[in-house]
Design brief:
Its cofactor is Mg(2+). Pfam families: DAGK_cat (PF00781), YegS_C (PF19279). Belongs to the diacylglycerol/lipid kinase family. It is built from 7 helices and 15 strands. The protein is an alpha+beta fold and 290 residues long. The protein has 2 domains: 109 residues, Probable inorganic polyphosphate/atp-NAD kinase, domain 1 (Rossmann fold); 155 residues, Tumour Suppressor Smad4 (Sandwich), CATH 2.60.200.40.
Length: 290
C-alpha cells in the first residue's frame, strides 16, 4: 500500500463524495480508500497507520476532516500527509499550491513534492491552520452546527452577523516569554498558516515552515467598528488597525473566563485557559510547489 485515502463522504455537504467519484477511476491499485462513519473516525483511521514512514495518508474532506487526520498522525508524524480539499472553508490547502482540477489534485496528493511543515498544538489537540479564542471561536461553534445550510465564506459571514449583536469583549491575559498583559479582547488568533473561515487572511505573516506562530490580538472594538475591520481581513490589512496587536512566538498561554470557547482549524476544542505551542517541522506534506 502506497497511500491510504481517508474519505469523509459527508464533508462539504456532499462535495467530498462527488470529488471521490471524479477521481475514483484514476486511483492506482496500491491506494486504499477507507470511509469515515462519524465524528472522530478519521482520527482512528489515521492512527492505525501513523507509524508507516513510506505511506502517504490523504485526507479527502474539509478542514475539519484534515484536523481529525492530523490528530491521528501526531505525535509520531512519520507518514506523509496530503489533502484532497472538499469542505466548507478549504483553508489549509491554500498554503500548499494545489491545482484546481480533480485529476491534477490527485496527482499532487499522491506524488507531489515533499515539504516539512510545523504543526500547532493547543493543550493536547493538534492543528494545521489557526487556533483562536473570542469572537471567532463563538462563530466557529455556530458554523459547525449550521454548515449544512450554506457553503464557503457565506456561512461564516452569516455566523459573524448573527454574533455581532450580543458578543462582548472579555478580559484576557496573554503570557509570552515570561511576561504577561491583560486587555479586554475581541479575539486572539494564533496562526500556523494565514487563512481561516473560507479565505480570511487572519494571520497574514503566518508561515508553516518558520517554527513560529503569527499571533493577531484584537482588542475591544465598538460594534460599528467590527464590520469595517472584518472586510480588511480578506486582504490581511486589518493588522494595521490601532486596536490590533501582532507578534510572533513559539508558545503562548491565554487565560480568561472559563466559559470562553477555543477553536483549532475551525473545530471547537475546549475552553480557556489554554497553552498554544508550535511543533517545528513536525510532518511531511505533499505540495504542488517545488
Amino acid at each position: 500500500m502506497a497511500a491510504r485515502i481517508i474519505l469523509n463522504p459527508t464533508a462539504g455537504n456532499g462535495k467530498a463524495q462527488k470529488l471521490f467519484e471524479l477521481i475514483q477511476a484514476h486511483l492506482p491499485n496500491d491506494v486504499e480508500v477507507v470511509r469515515t462513519t462519524g465524528p472522530g473516525h478519521a482520527t482512528e483511521l489515521a492512527r492505525q497507520v501513523a507509524d508507516q514512514e513510506d505511506l502517504t495518508v490523504v485526507s479527502l474532506g474539509g478542514d475539519g476532516t484534515h484536523h481529525e487526520v492530523i490528530n491521528g498522525l501526531m505525535p509520531e508524524g512519520k507518514t506523509i500527509f496530503a489533502v484532497l480539499p472538499a469542505g466548507t472553508g478549504n483553508d489549509f490547502v491554500r498554503t500548499l499550491g494545489y491545482p484546481k482540477s480533480p485529476r491534477a489534485m490527485l496527482d499532487v496528493a499522491l506524488y507531489g513534492a515533499e515539504r516539512r511543515i510545523d504543526v500547532g498544538r493547543v493543550n493536547d489537540e493538534y492543528f494545521l491552520t489557526v487556533s483562536g479564542v473570542g469572537f471567532d471561536a463563538e462563530v466557529a461553534g455556530w458554523v459547525n452546527q449550521h454548515e449544512k445550510k450554506g457553503n464557503g465564506t457565506w456561512i461564516f459571514l452569516r455566523g459573524i452577523l448573527r454574533h455581532l449583536v450580543h458578543f462582548q469583549a472579555e478580559q484576557m491575559t496573554i503570557h509570552v516569554d515570561g511576561a504577561f498583559r491583560s486587555e479586554p479582547t475581541f479575539l486572539l488568533a494564533a496562526g500556523n498558516s494565514p487563512y481561516y473561515a473560507g479565505g480570511m487572511k487572519i494571520c497574514p505573516e503566518a508561515d508553516p515552515g518558520d517554527g513560529l506562530f503569527h499571533v493577531v490580538w484584537v482588542k475591544d472594538l465598538s460594534r460599528l467598528g467590527v464590520l469595517p475591520l472584518l472586510t480588511r481581513v480578506f486582504r490581511g490589512t486589518h493588522v494595521q488597525h490601532p486596536q490590533v496587536k501582532t507578534f510572533q512566538t513559539e508558545q503562548l498561554t491565554v487565560e480568561g473566563p472559563p466559559n470562553m470557547l477555543v477553536h483549532a482549524d475551525g473545530e471547537i476544542v475546549g475552553h480557556l485557559p489554554v497553552t498554544m505551542t508550535v511543533i517545528p517541522a513536525a510532518i511531511r506534506v505533499r505540495t504542488g510547489r517545488s
